[in-house]
Amino acid sequence: MTFVVTESCIKCKYTDCVEVCPVDCFHEGPNMLVIDPDECIDCTLCEPECPVEAIMSDEDVPENNQSFIELNAELSKAWPVINELKPAPEDADEWKDKTDKLALLKR
Predict the structure, then answer these.
(1) How far apart (Å, rounded) are the C-alpha atoms in residues 76 and 91?
(2) Which domains does the chain have, with CATH numbers?
(3) How confident is the model at residue 62 (pLDDT cuts 50, 70, 90)?
(4) Cα distance between residue 42 and residue 3, in whole Å
(5) Spatial CA neighbour of 36 closest among 70, 7, 86, 62
(6) 63-72 long-range CB contacts below 8 Å, 24 or more apart?
(7) pTM of the full predicted structure?
(8) Quick one: DSSP state of residue 91?
(9) CA atoms in the 13 A half-sphere facing the CB of 8
């Protein structure tokens, strides 16, 4: 089991989760974060920190977000590690409750 960042993070990119991660498994892209499944130790510390509930166990990822399991693995290899809190994008609160954001993902 590992944890996965799902669609809710796109265009929100709150970084509360990275501060509590003991192994620096988060990686930052242009408009979302991902978790490296090879680095994640399943500590569960990040999950309750996410204000948009974008982080969940890979076993709990809903059907409409299954592609994010592979996306996290793929993009974590390309994006740099993030381990410090950063300000969220200015429009993050406008995007936090929106769905169907996969087309907005910037690689």
Answers:
(1) 24
(2) 3-82 (3.30.70.20)
(3) very high
(4) 6
(5) 70
(6) 64/7, 65/4, 65/6, 65/7, 67/102, 68/4, 68/5, 68/6, 68/7, 69/4, 69/37, 71/34, 71/105, 72/4, 72/5, 72/34, 72/35, 72/36, 72/37
(7) 0.96
(8) T
(9) 16
